[in-house]
Design a protein that fits this description.
4 copies of one chain form a homotetramer. Chain A has 18 helices and 6 strands. By secondary structure, chain A is mainly α. The interface between A and B is large, with 128 and 128 residues.
């Protein structure tokens, strides 16, 4: 069965059928397609286009079809070019002519727009929930390793000592922004296009707001032409997934680095590692590398959709069918990655002694400058002076704390015996105690706020 | 003057200086850089790191520098590698040592993050306002040409008759979503990173919330490492600009098409057209083609930033300097395009007779099916029947309205003499009168709601 | 069976197994994987690492496995994480211990690099051949409709009359460049990485050139670290596919346009069109719209791979596994699209009378200017004069050929009675007779050269 | 002066002038624009459209204009909307009416296509030459540090010992492929579009081959419509630049990593490093980070052009003006990056003792397996056995070489006293002596071949 054969005389080309066939990937929309049809049937009944009996028959037929899909029993027919056709065809088999009334005033243009929106609403919620699980893991690791010190890098060069927990929590906030973006995207997704018809609107006076409410959508479209062609919500969802992917790639990069024996700050569980077919000693952080690699997949799906949309004329064009696979793939990928990464974070073993071993006195250079600032030296001058201190230590091949005060005084008279208290990494860390800083108290506060965000 | 020379012994490579030089493009941040420094100076004063006199001196010096930039009198020095260095260098010249205190506890890492955020806050507002101007133009054209009928296309094939004003308003809602996205992005942009230092936080107890409030920012960062590396807001702004570009590309495609003499539904003003260097008769819709072409530029800027971010390790890496030119270019491009397009829309001359001439009875095929539906035929069957009607007319080479009712009755007994009332385009349009439909009443309602959105 | 379990104590996480599993998509490499192993077995035998009997056993085992895959009988085992593991596992079942010798000095790193190269070599050839088929179709249509005149557009505005065949042939040359690019890409693809091992090279003195020759590869890698990480050839193949996609998108845009009834220059066969589920009259050029939409898919696959590669450290990283699905999808897509488009071109029905009806005298404006040039007027002045001629005709609301010579003489004294010979479209076309021009003779010449390129 | 004002009555919008203005960026094409005009003038003379005197006058005028640009004396006029207009306007001022003859049969459509091709031809050559310089630097460093051993990583985990020079040379071959790609791209760039006119070809019988030869172009276009719209060469050049950028990003990633004190295998010169405004001790590898960041810029330029091209109808559309800035920016960026990186490579200081210190016996695990292979154990079994050996050493907390042979024999009876010869890193390296391997002899051979490629 085709929904449109009436005016055609010839047959469709065999290859064209395959080319045009979207059932192979849009079948995953069956539940939302049926959900939309249930709501539309009610609306048709409300305006008298379906009798109570026809409505009951449709409802029950749709219910059966959903069951068939749920249990893997739905059998595709040769002519089912998409999920909408397949459902209508099967419905006709099950309940006869009444099935043919379901498409009254409805086009596949508004139908597929609805299906995609319902699908996205579901997947946005699922993604939010997976992000929360990952955020829980991050908090748990931060709490379990709250006070371990490690080098903080900028430009991948040692910068200042920080807490391991502070590093771990930095990712919490990235994912927190991702959650916020998803929730914003949801608002623009939960808008009902039903009643837009092919492009011009419905002549049957159906109650668009009521359908929307029934489907859990907060709003309806204000322009039928826009309704059938708007794919902003697909792009916006893909953008939020792209940002998640970018954040995952940061986390992956850090973990891959810190797993190298030159650092060995941590190790991910064997359960998430693999070995080598050639080299017997290998234990590779494959989970994180793969997750990092999949950034390309997600970002390029966003671009796929943007390219498809670029330069199209108004309303529905068949190009829009190309919004699906990119989205499905990125949703599946992200959901898998988020689950894996939560597992990886839980599996991390931390080696605080290795982190500690890489803290060096040079990383306290800013603290020496701050010391001078506290003694009245303008920061820029203090910075310059400490540069000289470092050069001095390098020339003498001694550590900073080994420089005698007298030698320091040749550089600045402000140095005093108490300068040596600076060479205490935890002291340096503890001083960064304003909101968002790396001091233990500040990190505890941070974790509290994080828990609040999750309603913990 | 360099801000970091102390520990170096050699000279920087000449080419490296050029490579590293960001002043040539980040100088446009001068006003926000100075705004940030003013706020930071207050904060330093509040914790006693600046005396009242030093604060006054800094304030006045910063004020002078802003004036110099405003009036084009600021002179760059050879060593000014970025806007931050340039301002601090000049400040030192103007007020001496106190200038060196401004960087206390502040790094260029948190400083540039702040500058970029303040810049984006300003440009988001500007973009919102330009969108509103364009939306006003769309409404004005829709109102001025409210009842003109034109063919509505799907797949660029004639589908159903619609109103010109309905077509024009369809773009209003795209830009309305863009405004909403910009406002959502703003929330995540107006977050203050000041006090994050290089990566670890501030040891000087400055009041981060107060600075944020002074800068019109609703929130502060909760993690200093995240604060210095987060560029989500740049990507998110670029994404919203990309969606605007995609919407402009749709509008451009339609207008370029409708300007072709085969349609000649409309013509954009000469003021936005150009001619040919070879062909004297040409009048090309260049403004729209260029606007469509610039979609590539904006989308690829988003992509640029996402690629830069992909796979970076934690905190600041120099790669992040590459967030600026892509953003600046896309902001400039979008602001220019929006201004131009508003002008183009205002300049449009409409040729309703040409639109009318392309309405054909075939575009009422759905109405014939709806007629059968109203006479009790299930839609799917009705659709099939109308397919046969069309085939019949094609074979006889007559128009649909010329088919005698007797002939129609061979196809379906439900056809009656009143079938001929269908062949009235305005009737077909007027029936699509539910919210968002193309009926004149519905479009009027739509315009009212649009005006409400703009606070008109 | 895992190829690397020896040093591990724990179990791999279940989800991780799925995440890591590439067999579901790399199984399509089975034939080339086995081809590579056959060649490698010979090389191992040549250096005495396999006895003649072991070689025979391996050969025969590999042959059986290929048969199993070919006939769909290969059964995956639970632990088969990729095609390489699956083949080795099955080989062990079939021939016992000797199977374990096949991996001597070989890593999956060089193995998969080889597989991907052999795969690309095959698919490049296939793509070249599909391009040729399409080029044949273009030539056939050009020849069948050689002398039909149509408007040529620039900026989608009428520019100059051209031949339909000239338009059609313009696509021939785009695809000709694509063929050339594919052949260039092939050179850099047919380079053997076997013998690179995991990254450091082979300690067993195998003859790398001989293996390469046996596999039809013209060259071998000069650096083992480069050999295992180079994915340039994947990106380059995807780039050539992207250019094909862009060319298809041009063709699609033209055909979709020219199928609109405002033009109706041509119509694609019903076999490649579809109808509407709502509007019974519709006949949409879906094949071309879908083909245009798929441009996004192919271009974004290229970017997927480039993003994956960006910023990776040396040699093999697991991220590289992400080169496959993007490539496979784009190869499949392009091969399908090329087949479809060849069919579409063959199916095109041309309406020369509609093209002719849209030729207007204004499109001869350049010819009038050329007339003045031939009478000694510098072109720039002639162009200006013809601008005035057009304005005059517009003001008087007459056609250009209706302007009396006397009136023309007010604009330029060079106009003479013979100016009216200009208003002959075929004359204008025939004058563009240098190589590459639209004159019938030039197009015939062009077709001859095209046939030569195809060896016709 | 505008080249097309004749038929227009109104004024162009002021903002539209800015929008349409390409002189601000296409002025860089002046030399190639004039070069093209010189060649075209000759061709016009050859067919009698220019007298000898006019030709001389044109030649001399063009020469003067080139001088004015070269010396920075060219003054832009208000109406110069692009480089072509500017040159023709100035030419008119200099030599009067004859200037107006230069555009005979030429459109800006074929003119700008030619300019862009000549520009690309020059820049391709320049890029090839910069690549060679960088390749020389790589060879020099490899030779200077030929025999230093370092850990080779896969998955960023220690894999096998390699030579530093082998690592360095791996980049040579990436850039060698880039050179080959550039030379292939050149073939498709050096094709002359002159004579295509606006789209239909030239009516004046000019000798297209001769012009091409005069301009150093090997071929001419075979279809005028294709000639004016083909931008494949821009995309192809940008693709080759993208691959260069990807290769640079690999090199940058390695160098940034190896500069971290946890590795400290090398250090780039101070001349290419920068410090921190806050942390006095910092010395950051900024050059490499920036170079890595700029990958985003180059790849996205390619993407920009592909998006612009997607979905355009035939021949010239104004969108094509958007091919320029993306290309110019990426050419400038790449040329700058290549120069910088060559300098960085030259400046590298190597710390062989740090590399050596990170070689561990586990990295010889494959060699132990190879030992068993040489004693007749199938590789897969050997691999498994060595896994057990490693586990044994880990449990006993001893190094591999400390395991007594008796203990090894519990795992495999094939182990003998001579097993200890394996624990010699240089021995392991030296065994990988087939072509492309890391053995000193193989690397020497590799360097020889590299020099041959460069004609050294």
């Amino acid at each position: 069965m085709k929904l449109w054969g009436g005016r055609f005389t010839g047959e469709q080309n065999e290859l064209m059928k395959q080319f045009n066939d979207s059932f192979k990937f849009d079948r995953r929309l069956y539940a939302v397609d049926i959900q939309g049809s249930q709501a539309y049937a009610s609306a048709l009944h409300a305006v008298g286009l379906l009798s109570a009996q026809e409505l009951a028959s449709l409802r029950s037929g749709l219910h059966i079809i959903k069951d068939e899909f749920d249990t893997g029993k739905f059998e595709r027919n040769f002519g089912d070019e998409d999920i909408h056709t397949a459902v209508e065809r099967r419905l006709t088999e099950l309940i006869g002519d009444a099935a043919g009334k379901l498409h009254t005033g409805r086009s596949r243009n508004d139908q597929v727009a609805l299906d995609m929106r319902l699908y996205c609403m579901n997947e946005i919620s699922k993604t939010v929930s997976l992000l929360e699980t990952l955020q829980h893991s991050l908090i748990a690791q931060a709490e379990a390793n709250l006070s371990f010190m490690m080098p903080g890098f900028t430009h991948l060069q040692p910068a200042q000592p920080i807490l391991f927990s502070h590093w771990m929590m930095s990712f919490f906030w990235m994912f927190e922004r991702d959650r916020a973006r998803l929730n914003d995207a949801l608002k623009r997704t939960a808008v009902s296009p039903l009643g837009a018809g092919a492009l011009a609107g419905s002549p049957f006076g159906i109650d668009r707001e009521k359908i929307a409410a029934e489907l859990g959508m907060a709003a309806i479209f204000m322009n039928s032409m826009d309704a059938v062609s708007d794919r902003d919500f697909v792009a916006e969802f893909l953008f939020t997934l792209s940002m998640i992917a970018v954040h995952i790639s940061h986390l992956a990069e850090d973990i891959v680095l810190f797993s190298n024996p030159a650092f060995k700050y941590l190790q991910i569980g064997e359960a998430f590692s693999t070995g080598s077919s050639l080299m017997p000693q290998k234990r590779n952080p494959d989970a994180m590398e793969l997750a990092r690699g999949k950034t390309g997949r997600v970002i390029s799906s966003l671009f796929n959709v943007l390219i498809v949309l670029k330069g199209l004329p108004s309303t529905y064009n068949k190009d829009l069918q190309e919004d699906k696979q990119a989205l499905f793939d990125s949703v599946d990928t992200t959901e898998m990655v988020l689950s894996i990464i939560a597992g990886v974070i839980n599996s991390i073993e931390v080696f605080p002694e290795n982190m500690l071993a890489q803290l060096t006195e040079e990383m306290l250079a800013t603290d020496i400058a701050d010391y001078l600032v506290e003694h009245g030296v303008p920061f820029r001058e203090a910075h310059q002076k400490v540069g000289e201190v470092i050069k001095f230590a390098e020339e003498k091949d001694i550590s900073l704390s080994e420089i005698p005060v007298s030698a320091l005084n040749h550089i600045s008279s402000k140095f005093d015996a108490d300068v040596h208290k600076i060479f205490d990494f935890m002291r340096a860390i503890s001083k960064k105690d304003s909101v968002g800083g790396t001091a233990p108290q500040a990190v505890k506060k941070q974790i509290e706020m994080a828990k609040e965000k999750l309603g913990m």
